[in-house]
Amino acid sequence: MDPAALSLLLSPTGWALLGALPPYDERLAMTISERFQREGIDPTLVAAALTQSRLRARAHSKFDDFADGMLFTPAGLEQSTRLVVGARHARRYFAAGSTHVADLTCGIGGDAMAFAALGLRVLAVDVDEMTAAIATVNLRHFPDAEVRHADGLTLDLAAEGIDGIFADPARRTASGRRRHDPSAYEPSLDRVLALRETVPALGVKVGPAIDHAAVPVDAEAQWVSVDGDVVEAGLWFGPLAPDGPGRSALVLRGTTATTVRAPADGLEPPPVGPVGAYLYEPDGAVIRAGLVAVTAEQVHGRLLDSTIAYVTSDHLAATGSATPYRVLDVMPFGLKRLRTALRERGVGRLTIKKRGTAVVPEQLRKQLDLRGDAEATVVLTRVAGNQQVLVVEPV
Fold this sequence. Notes:
The chain has helices at 3-9, 12-20, 26-38, 43-63, 74-79, 83-95, 110-117, 129-138, 157-160, 189-193, 284-288, 292-298, 335-344, 361-368; strands spanning 100-103, 121-126, 145-149, 164-167, 202-206, 220-226, 229-236, 246-253, 256-261, 278-282, 302-303, 311-313, 322-332, 347-354, 374-383, 386-394. By secondary structure, the chain is α/β, with parallel strands linked by helices.
């Protein structure tokens, strides 16, 4: 969106048009566009309003109903923090005693909104003028939030009275490709980390694929998942990491939050053993954080294979860090044998999970020629180095 389109959208006519649009439906977009243009509405305004309507519809998964009062850019929405996660970020600063937080790469302002909603003063900064303008719109309801178009890393933080810093460096190229190397972030991770010498309360959102070797020794590195999807990792320093440096995972499922943390005395490799009565699938954040051993200890379990993140146990144990399944059958992997077992159960709907195997689930599904009304779940994996199939059911 260019400045002229944003100006039209923020006019009384433009804002009213955006608010009057029905829920976005790709099939109706052209019809609506043509109707408004026949009524004499500026085509640039119509295009901008429909684009925002489409982005708002996508943004509901991150911002819920708040999305209906926000503006977005495609890139800003892609990198923005989910509301439920941004609230967790804000709580860290509040608990640390921060009162004036600078979001130095604010994007569309999602995290800054969460900070301001908790009563913190916020200085939101973005190097892109259009993005800063959109953040200004999104933060309009918070009188203690200021937005600036500037390079946040050039600010005199001491003179601004900043006692907490947050940064979310850009992790995509102009063409949309992900940057996995922290030195290729914009700004680079090293430049952001240098700020903790000025303000110890520093938080940095990074990609969840970050290598453990790239995590500073003085950071709490926390991987976060929301309803099964790993969405980010965060590096937290100083008072924002009250439990000290280390690795942790935050598992958010519905209204439930589970935190898994490596013990201070380190992790012992979990034992490896035969398939038990239950199979546990550790959450992706737990796996990324390298904390599968913690889950194994929680369920009094063992690994199926030393290189595979599946845990098995003879006991059913409550844990928020893994999904439990009851094991119904175990067999060596073979197409004919699996097809026979599923037909005997009358399985017509099949969920296929896999780790440690090259099998392509969709290809396998076609080869199985499923028939019946029953539903089943199979897990394709290695057990003590051998390809096995586990027929399981969710607990």
